[in-house]
Amino acid sequence: MSLQWRTRPLLVALGVLAVLLAAFVRALLSFDDYPMSVADVLRTLTGGGDGGETFVLFTLRMPRALTAALVGAALGLAGAIMQSLTRNPLASPDTLGVMWGASVGAIAVIVFGGSTGQVSGLVSQVGVPVGALVGGLVTSAVVFGLAWSSGLEPTRLLLMGVAASLFCANLVYWAMSWTEVQDATRAQTWLTGSMHAADWDRVGPAALALAVLLPLCLAAAHALGALVLGDDTARGLGVRVERARLLLLLIATLLACVAVSAAGPITFVALAAPQIALRLCKLAYPPLATSMLLGSALTLIADQIAAGLFPVALPVGVFTAVLGAPYLMYLIVRRHREQHL
């Protein structure tokens, strides 16, 4: 029985990894109107491509694919941590206000910092990530602080998250209505959650942040597994409950802020990936590694579908929102039925 429990999550993780690699390769081969074969891609990767192939692969496709993969990984991991900590499938950076809080900070930089007509240079590389980080951390602290009452009660936490999301969303729209039309248009484009402007300036900080946060997640995985069993059990297993919970919430918030700063608010990936991973692995709580890989694969695939399936290329955030809204309603109905059985 124990061997079966360990084998299935491993096989699922390997299967999701294979899907992720296939989606990444496809993104390098045929993302736009410039066709490249596998041989063309391999030749260009080794320095043998012509100028056009080098530009398409290294300037357009690879930064976009890497950004989508990193953003999806951060969202999947953040969602898995939040759902495990709260023991609530509806908990995610989307529903708890973190994503809108990060958007407030980033939009403030875009609207008030783009004085030259575009967000670029130091403002883009440092200002937007810092703004998203500050906005997400402040919102997360407010939501979890107000929801805390001798523990995290799921319904109270979600209501606080919804209230914070509405408040932050209206702050964003107020900032957009108060500024020039050009800045408001640029902010609105960013708010849709898109990979269209992905470049190496976005890949670098996102990769660096994940390189720091992922080991912390793995180190805290034991404490997270104990917290899922309840505070008393976790204390019995030697876990410092409050310190571990605070650290995990901080990591999840930072991951969500990293994703928002790289591509804008891409909704429902953090909500759906952990629940799909949980059902595939048949575990009691979302597995971190599989949720991360699944979030990465879902974002990559969604970006390719949104860019290539319709007459006009859609931002990936619009596509995931259209798919995610029915899924959120399904989760709410399912949880309501489970509570009344």
From TrEMBL:
Which keywords does this Swiss-Prot/TrEMBL entry list? Answer: Cell membrane, Membrane, Transmembrane, Transmembrane helix, Transport
Domain of life from the UniProt record: Bacteria
Q: Where in the cell is it found?
A: Cell membrane
Give the InterPro entries listed for this entry. Answer: ABC_BtuC-like, ABC_transptr_permease_BtuC
Q: Which Pfam families match?
A: FecCD
Give the matching CDD domains: TM_ABC_iron-siderophores_like
| Gene3D superfamilies for the chain | ABC transporter involved in vitamin B12 uptake, BtuC
Gene Ontology cellular component annotations, sorted alphabetically: plasma membrane
PANTHER family given for it? FERRIC ENTEROBACTIN TRANSPORT SYSTEM PERMEASE PROTEIN (PTHR30472), FERRIC ENTEROBACTIN TRANSPORT SYSTEM PERMEASE PROTEIN FEPG (PTHR30472:SF24)
Q: Which family does it belong to?
A: Belongs to the binding-protein-dependent transport system permease family. FecCD subfamily.
Question: Under which name does UniProt file this protein?
Answer: Iron complex transport system permease protein
The species this protein was found in: Lipingzhangella halophila
